[in-house]
Amino acid sequence: MSVVPGEYAITGSRASDIAASVEQGVSSGELPPGSVLPPMRELASRLGVNPNTVAAAYRILRERGLIETDGRRGSRVRARPATLAREAIRTELPPGVRDIATGNPDPTLLPPLTDALAAAARRYTHRPRLYGDDAVVPELERAARAGFDADGVPAGPIVLTSGALDAVERVLSAHLRPGDAVAVEDPGWGSLLDLVPAMGLKVLPVALDDDGPLPYSVATALDKGARALIVTDRAQNPTGATVSADRAAELRALLERHPNVLVIEDDHGHAIVEQPLHTLAGATRTWALVRSTAKAYGPDLRLAFLTADRVTADRVQGRYQLGPGWVSGLLQYAVVDLWEQGTLDTAAVARSYRVRREALIAALERRGVAARGRSGLNVWVPVADETGTVARLQAAGWAVAPGARFRVESPPGVRLAVSQLAAGDVEELAAAVAEAVRPGRAVRYG
């Protein structure tokens, strides 16, 4: 049997079949975001199944991040179901349009990998890594731990994963269960805002300024039952915020009153920023700090390393061994060689990104446009009309990222990636942005 909300027929006699039918409708677009699903008893009656079967199907869909249930308002397809990643919110670019929407690093600043991969192959020839070997090669473990020690991160084991988002997901899975709430920066990393509901967790947005998450907003999220807090230490995406020493002290004092909250720090800006790290690690019993090689050494290395309290580290490492097993030793040795040879001039890389950000922000300011970008690869421009701004900039030859990729409740804006900008581009881009945002109507952050 089938049931039709609008034009789409929900089918199935088992919970898994009903859930799969709804998921197919969401994926095909026949059940667009906001579509209201039938009440459970009504759907059960029409399908000829027990109401508990429909309840189980809806639970599966909630845990997959596809639907949300709000008391008397019933169940509906989420505004951004997990089948539609925020990165999919884009349009094909006409010829001649400059793409500053993507957040990739500048390829010219990435170190060459030929020698590092060759060195890794030589190490492998001398001693191949086999089943049963330690998950982390000793040289990488020592170097990673030394880096954490230098930045004042509490002692903890080193665990490797296939990228920062992989690490965050595994840490969340180690402690949380579907239905738990997670405090997340807003605006924040779009992939993270997709991941949390896809895991069946609830997003509690946290406001931030250039110094990081605002304590009052974090406190509100904790009062609402947040079991975890995710903070970007430096190069926050999309605003460029960096957690300052004073803000870190305020947040640590707040978190110490909530010792059971899991704190995850994303320090993906390591090696591409000039600002020092002010960590929150250790303010609560369970914590993890993640660093990735992606922005400094190349996204395709697919290696992130984290340190954490012993329980968290053991849970993440144990579960990783039951899946991928370990991160390729060849990749580990390549990173070791890059570090040992000092192949990357991290100070020069950080300076290059800073010069571009500051030049663009200054050029915008001269035209009456407020912008943010203390660190990292991006500049965030608050706007009154997000859709119109994106369209007008594309017509002027510039593709920028719409703020919808990064927002939950925060005001609209657009993100400009400076990694593809040359010095001669800045004034032209600033003029185009000023015209597109219509400064008299622009939204400014206080």
Q: Could you walk me through the main structural features you see in this protein, from its secondary elements to its overall organization?
A:
This protein is an alpha/beta fold and 446 residues long. The chain contains 15 helices and 18 strands. Helix 2 packs across helix 3, helix 6 (164-175) packs across helix 11 and helix 14 crosses helix 15 (426-437). Mean pLDDT is 91; it is low at 439-446.
Q: Which short descriptors sum up this protein?
A:
globular; 18 strands; three-stranded antiparallel sheet; 15% strand; seven-stranded mixed sheet; alpha/beta; disordered C terminus; 446 residues
Number of strands: 18
> Please, what is the oligomeric state?
single chain
pLDDT average, as an integer? Answer: 91
Number of helices: 15
Determine Rg (CA atoms, Å).
23 Å
Q: Which ranges are low-confidence, i.e. pLDDT below 50, for 5 or more consecutive residues?
A: 439-446
From the N-terminal CA to the C-terminal CA, the straight-line distance is 56 Å
Structural class: alpha/beta
The order of strands across the largest sheet is 6-14-13-12-11-7-8
Helix content: 25-40%
**Gross geometry:** globular
- The share of residues in extended strands comes to 15-25%
Q: Strand count, sense and closure of the main sheet?
A: 7 strands, mixed
